[in-house]
Amino acid sequence: MTTELLQPLIYDIGTPGRLGVNLPECDVPKVELPAALMREELPLPEVGEVQVVRHFVKLSKLNYSIDQGMYPLGSCTMKYNPKINEDAARLPGFAQLHPLTDESGSQGALFLMHELQKWLGEISGFPAVSLTPAAGAQGEFAGILMIRRYHIDRGEGQRDLILVPNSAHGTNPATVTMAGMDVLELPADDQGNVDMDALHAACEGELRDRIAGMMITVPSTLGLFESTILEVIATVHDAGGLMYMDGANMNALMAAVKPGALGFDVMHYNLHKTFSTPHGGGGPGSGAVGVNEKLAPYLPGPIVEIVEGAPHSEEVVGATLESPEHGLGMRRASQGSPLQTSVEVRGEPPLYGFVMPEKSIGRLKAFHGNFGMHLRAYAYIRVYGDSGIRDVTRYAVLNANYLRAKLMATYTVPYPRHCGHEFVLEGHFADADDVHALDISKRLMDYGFHPPTNYFPLIVPEALLIEPTETETKADLDEFIAAMEKIAEEARSDPELLRGAPYTAPVRRLDEVRAAKELVLCCAPARAAASV
Amino acid sequence: MSYIPHTANETQQMLGAIGVDSIDALFAAVPATHRFPKLDLPPPMSEMEVAAEMLAISEANDHAQDFAIFRGAGAYHHFIPSVVNHMLLRGEFYTAYTPYQPEISQGTLQATYEYQSMMCALTGMDAANASHYDGATSLAEAVTVALEVARHKRKKVILSHAIHPQYREVVRTYHQGRDIRIIGDRGRGEIVDLMEMLDENTAMLAVQYPDFFGQIDDLTALADAVHQAGALLVMVANPMALSIFKSPGELGADIVVGEAQPMGVPLGYGGPYLGYFAIRQKYVRRIAGRIIGETLDADGKRAFVMTLRPREQDIKRERASSNICTNQGLMALAASVYMALMGKNGLRQVGELNYYKAHYAANEINRLDGYSVDMSKPFFNEFVVACPRPVAEINEALLAEGIIGGLDLGPHYFHLNDRMLLCVTEMNAKEEIDRLVEILGGLRR
Lengths: 532, 445
Description:
With 532 residues, chain A is of the alpha/beta class. Chain A has 15 helices and twelve strands. In chain A, the strands form three sheets. In chain A, strands 1-7-6-5-4-2-3 form a seven-stranded mixed beta sheet, sandwiched between helices.
């Protein structure tokens, strides 16, 4: 038994007096520091630059990532993150732009946000979009706060119930509670759809006047498009409730259907899923929200609008900047665009500015959202364009259905219908019942894959939720299928092997109970400054 | 097809395996009336064209490579060693997901654990989480923790007016559905005035350190008063200032939150930034968001794992106190690399440079006719200047000379018309400061 870490802690590779960085000499006269306010200890490491580089490079090698291989993590849309977007984010005009720069000095950033608002609105069929939410969960929170305020403004503040299917992401019910409302959970029928009898009972029974709305994921967290979705929407609307769409699965919908056209009132996008901004080992995300006219006045702010100058034509999208020389002029010259003529005739560029919607639920964070993610999503949509965005969804759905069709031979796949961009299978076998979904997941690591999502959605026993995304080749998928088939064989021939997996990962299975009991959350040397 | 690798032949083989004729056939469950709408988006573009367009858009902004910046107010222009960006650009870090599978995520887990440790070192707290969205939302989440600690029996939250105005707005957004009262920030109350508001119904009191105006109050009596009332003291602290000033732990804070953007995260037009959240041991199980702990693997090897998971939304659902899941993980990595590089001596040196340069600028400006700097309290790297003309006019004149001036406080505080909040960091060379002073000197009444 060893007690060494794979890579020592940064605190343990330092030496007193070693410096990691050279700073310029102070070029102004020094004044006296206020001694009574100064700290004595600053228990940070003392490590040289080369050591720091090697430390983090070694740590990086203990990770699995999309850049190394397939990451079929259901509901997370782990697609390739284009490198050009990382370059764009590091341009000084973006990376070194202060968030409180006057609007006249940030027209480039404002233009970009305005275009992105328009494009996201177009993709989902919503006339208004706010980019401010920092992640999907914050987008959900914004949506439910908007629904709450809408009812209060109409004198129906007693509407305090949000319907949530039992297949929902955990964020949905947690969001409802945060907004000060209550959850009414709905069961699924045997097809994985919302149970319509239960929905009608809730919307037409004594709780009718308390229904504020419903949160639903489309396609559902089982990867299935609810065939009854129009009836679900109509039923909730009839009861006076509004419909929230969780957009986590938007990768199955682009150019296939517009949620706004189906009748949804509000949805959030995950720019870090559908629009390829990197997950960064846990974040940052970006969770823009789109709404119809009813909720537009309540959007979280600020949003970007054209505040003066050239006419704004809703039909014109994708106008481009002509060249850097135009600088602040932001003259736009998209080919064949009617705007081109009007701009040239008027000779006046539009001026973009931040606006707080009339009855806004307020600010969700300081400044104006995770702008670095906005610009990556902008570049992503720009590369694909109208035809390419359509293909993203088509090939995501093709890849998922191919995997599903192939794996049906070896695994139990509930719900006999084509899936969207992901599907669920049961990670256990009748003739090897001591093998669980978790064991299959861990064994996949030994075959060089990141596991699928385990034990979600909760309504399928031993669920493995698999989402390959459109950026995997048929050959990648075939390798994954071969690994899954091999594991199914191993489950019968050597179940112990699976229960002990992984063997080739940097560490074996971890003792999570011990972690929660002992709660070692901080290196000991860092605690030297801990207070009395 | 950009990032979609399929050949026509492969697509055909896959359709064959599925048993359908076309990809379109896979969308039969979508109501026919709404299926395949036209998307009014621009046409596709090559990488070359996109790169040119992004450059053009970025250059339509007044950024810190072209302008001298004296603006802070919650977003700070600091030196970021080259190593930070190189580490962030490792695909192993930035293209990984949340470390739910610890066996193949030890890199993210250990780097985050080290980030938590270094935030504890700076703040003097016992535990820090893996991050919140930004400084504002970490304050809003601190309010939730304080209400939970008081089991929702205390309904009053006291905020100092000298907390960043947008942070206070975010607290109100987050808690609009709750039956609580947020007070203290409508006027211009000093610390003693806030202390008078404390009572048995108070869940917490929050102050900013240094405050929004850059100043440092004497907080020694405050912590005792807050604790005597049975409430929690929350401090919103700029971690860069903690390089030289006493830690909030030493001053008696129970929760320390704030914006760690100054630690290696670029200005980036306001995000992604890094909300940090640190807390005393006795409240650690109330903390929201992800937190990394040490444990052993099946072979007895030391390793890291996400811990205290049962608090989180995916397990606790409607009984969770926060819905946060995705956080600002990559920015926590940036801060981890930054703090490791700067280390004990480098960070202190940066803190001192900020202090000296800000005081040099303040003293020079204070000498100018018509200008006066509020020197009533100690300050770090920001200070308030009373100006002889409207701040907007002064900033316009500075901009023409390639300088982005301070924040106009008038729109944020009714009593601070013609007041400018100036920020000076290690990035402002003496010549830049002298030029600023010279131009200001020429802009009198």
